[in-house]
């Protein structure tokens, strides 16, 4: 497939985000397209962003329910995002209820050197501000890795101890149906998604 040079120039510019700028917003992406001669066509630019997303050049959450978000979206460098998620999963000890506070999240993501010493992978010298923590949590919620409990607390199933006795049903809940799953091999992440 022959691609326009302008598309390759945008791809290279997105790859260059690894040099310290790990994310950009919608306006910055459109400005990047303008600078590299990509036609001013929103449909084409969204398609191009989807394609780069599929190639792993960047990670963007610019769709909601199959339509482009009205709210400003972020285009993230994939390694910056995955390292933050890993740091949250590995940086907090498991608890009975799997709850982590926003302050704990920010402390874990700010402590680059500490996490490096504990063997948790992270990008050298990178910490995450409160705003950047918000981007990370948005993605974790989108992929059901965590769930917002309140403005100050997050539920992460991976932080639950194996013997946690969680009862998410309301007090007056009457059980109407039951489900039983049988697997020869049960992927660990399936239970977290089910929770």
Highlighted features:
195 residues; single chain; 3-stranded antiparallel beta sheet; globular
What does it look like?
The model has no long low-confidence stretch (mean pLDDT 76). Strand 7 (147-148) and strand 8 form a beta hairpin. It is built from eight helices and eight strands. The longest helix is centred in the first third of the chain and has 14 residues, at 42-55. The chain starts with a helix and ends with a helix. With 195 residues, it is mostly helical.
Overall pLDDT, averaged? 76
Measured between the Cα atoms of the first and last residue, the distance is: 43 Å
- The parts where pLDDT drops under 50 for at least 5 residues are none
> How large is the share of residues in beta strands?
5-15%
Order of helices and strands: HEHHEEEEHEHHHEEH
Helix content: 40-55%
The helix tally amounts to 8
Largest sheet: 3 strands, antiparallel
- Strands, total number: 8
Could you tell me the radius of gyration in angstroms?
20 Å
Shape: globular
| Spatial sequence of strands, sheet with the most strands | 1-5-2
Q: Which structural class do you get from the secondary structure elements?
A: mainly alpha
